[in-house]
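quick q for whoever's on today - can somebody do inverse folding on this one?? i tried earlier but teh output was garbage lol. tokens:
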């Protein structure tokens, strides 16, 4: 050493290179020339042990072609200074050795060794931290992509691809632990039929990892004999190095193992192990979330199927068969449909049937009773409101249009909506945009509209009680549901269907109907339609005794709303009133039996020929054909 200032200058340069170096090799390439020039060293080199060879990391000077690897090996083995043929070797960190050909004394060499070892350690730590930051950034990108995947199989493939890219490996597999069957299921498994590898959960490196919960690194000269060659024979793949870590849920439960094979250069390092553990931690969360989502979707699908099975158009009458046929044809379109019929005829059942037969069946079906919406509640209920929009608006709430987005919105009793409400509804139907009460942000909605009413909308349009433009907007296709009294034997089919359902839920045997009870059911006018019949069957299920329903059990409720057989003219004579009554009664009986004259005659207590004779006497058309 010539001067103290040379050491000071060298140490300043060393510190600068520690801060600026991009890695270990760059550090040595910048520092060795300074050692050569500033410390008057003839030749200087850094070598690294890489069995069975030696790697020259960097060298400077006149005699670098004569670098003796044996001196470096001895220094590393003894972990102290070693000399031979004018060369001095001292060990550095991470299997590196510094070789000098100079006149430096042992004290100066030791001083240089300490400075270089400390600099190398600092550079290596900085480089590891940089690699870790880059790896974490990569993992964040990877896990963000995973969050967009809702299928477990696709997620497993994405995880394997991410691991091979992140760790520069050849292949990767995720093994899920089937504890019940004591097996590990590996996917993806290239070269295996079905792309699925099945192994016992107590064999191989993967078995050790799931049983112990500890990571393992083998191959590349490290525990090579533990590689399961039977799997290689099965896949036709030669495994050289393995890195395997456990897949553990945040709860601590072991899900399986994450394995990567064949590092593309060398063998897997401790840094690779930490990287795969970090990736596995995110993978376990992603798999858990995806499995929960798939379970929820599966349960949702079951609920949709159960709901669809529960929505049935029961009956064999021509009128119901026509409704059923039309429903099937229009269900999977986006046409607006107007369902017409009296109270209790099953308008909502038809609407739900249309929804569950359509591609929207997985999305919401939202029903709104327009008759129950006052003018002040209409906008809030249909379009939603912001917090504080009015006195009782304590929270922000989405409206029915938002809730039904992607699905079906059923507007029942549309004829009872006010003219102002009709105008607001029409605007939303045309623009497909809602704005919450008290808000200003337009919200796009995409719903299918089904509307229903028991009123004559055409007449209401003529009387200026219903907007004509809204009427045409809703009435693209109309379905007219017949009253129950006109559905003939459907009355008995529905009665038996409802009664069986209620009795099954109660756990009792379903009673049968006596002939007299059936006749009474068919003769009743059913002012409440299917709803009235359903309620009657529910009452019978709970209150009737025995295994047969008799006439005495049929306690019909007179709601005061039965259809009038005929409005009689009080100025008529008794003979004229009787004649009018008979004509109307016969006409309604024929309607009830859907034109079946034999059945109508039987219910009237007449022979068919006598019925025709009676009709001619009353001045009614009687086509005996």
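ok took a stab at it. sequence:
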């Amino acid at each position: 050493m010539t001067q103290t200032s040379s050491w000071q200058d060298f140490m300043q340069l060393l510190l600068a290179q520690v801060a600026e170096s991009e890695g270990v090799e760059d550090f040595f390439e910048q520092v060795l020339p300074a050692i050569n020039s500033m410390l008057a060293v003839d030749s200087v080199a850094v070598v690294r042990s890489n069995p069975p060879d030696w790697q020259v990391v960097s060298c400077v000077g006149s005699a670098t072609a004569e670098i003796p690897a044996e001196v470096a090996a001895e220094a590393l083995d003894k972990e102290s200074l070693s000399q031979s043929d004018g060369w001095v070797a001292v060990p550095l960190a991470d299997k590196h050795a510094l070789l000098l050909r100079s006149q430096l004394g042992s004290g100066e060499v030791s001083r240089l060794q300490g400075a270089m070892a400390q600099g190398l350690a600092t550079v290596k730590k900085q480089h590891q931290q940089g690699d870790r930051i880059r790896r974490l950034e990569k993992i964040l990108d990877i896990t963000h992509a995973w969050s967009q995947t809702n299928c477990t199989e696709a997620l497993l493939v994405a995880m394997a691809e991410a691991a091979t890219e992140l760790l520069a490996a050849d292949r990767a597999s995720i093994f899920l632990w089937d504890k019940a069957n004591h097996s590990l299921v590996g996917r993806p498994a290239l070269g295996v039929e079905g792309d699925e590898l099945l192994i016992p959960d107590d064999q191989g490196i993967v078995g050790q990892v799931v049983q112990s919960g500890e990571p393992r690194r083998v191959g590349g000269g490290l525990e090579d004999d533990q590689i399961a060659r039977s799997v290689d024979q099965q896949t036709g793949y030669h495994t050289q190095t393995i890195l395997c870590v456990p897949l553990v849920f945040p709860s601590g439960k072991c899900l399986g193992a994450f394995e990567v094979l064949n590092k593309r250069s060398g063998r897997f390092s401790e840094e690779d192990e930490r990287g795969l553990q970090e990736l596995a931690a995110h993978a376990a969360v992603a798999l858990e979330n995806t499995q929960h989502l798939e379970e929820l979707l599966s349960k949702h699908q079951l609920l949709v199927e159960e709901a669809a099975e529960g929505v049935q158009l029961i009956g064999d009458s021509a009128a119901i068969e026509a409704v059923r046929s039309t429903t099937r044809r229009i269900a999977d379109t986006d046409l607006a449909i107007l369902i017409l019929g009296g109270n209790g005829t099953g308008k909502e059942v038809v609407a739900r049937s249309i929804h569950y037969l359509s591609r929207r069946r997985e999305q919401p079906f939202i029903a709104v009773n327009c008759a129950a919406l006052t003018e002040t509640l209409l906008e809030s209920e249909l379009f939603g409101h912001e917090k504080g929009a009015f006195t009782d608006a304590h929270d922000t709430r989405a409206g029915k249009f938002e809730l039904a987005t992607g699905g079906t919105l059923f507007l029942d009793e549309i004829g009872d909506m006010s003219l102002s409400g009709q105008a607001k509804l029409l605007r939303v139907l045309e623009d497909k945009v809602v704005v919450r009460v008290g808000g200003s942000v337009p919200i796009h909605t995409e719903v299918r509209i089904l509307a229903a009413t028991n009123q004559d909308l055409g007449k209401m349009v003529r009387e200026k009680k219903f907007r004509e433009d809204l009427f045409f907007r809703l009435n693209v296709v109309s379905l007219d549901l017949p009253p129950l009294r006109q559905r003939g034997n459907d009355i008995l089919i529905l009665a038996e269907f409802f009664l069986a359902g209620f009795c099954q839920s109660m756990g009792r045997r379903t009673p049968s109907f006596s002939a007299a009870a059936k006749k009474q059911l068919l003769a009743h006018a059913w002012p409440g339609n299917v709803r009235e019949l359903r309620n009657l069957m529910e009452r019978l299920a709970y209150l009737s005794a025995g295994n047969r329903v008799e006439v005495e059990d049929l306690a019909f409720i007179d709601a005061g709303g039965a259809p009038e057989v005929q409005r009689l003219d009080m100025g008529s004579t008794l003979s004229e009133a009787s004649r009018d009554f008979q004509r109307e009664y016969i006409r309604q009986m024929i309607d009830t039996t859907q034109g079946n004259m034999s059945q109508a005659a039987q219910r009237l207590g007449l022979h068919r020929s006598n019925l025709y004779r009676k009709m001619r006497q009353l001045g009614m058309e009687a086509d005996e054909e």
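fwiw Residues 559-567 have pLDDT under 50 and may be disordered. also The first strand starts at residue 43 and ends at 50. so keep that in mind when u check it
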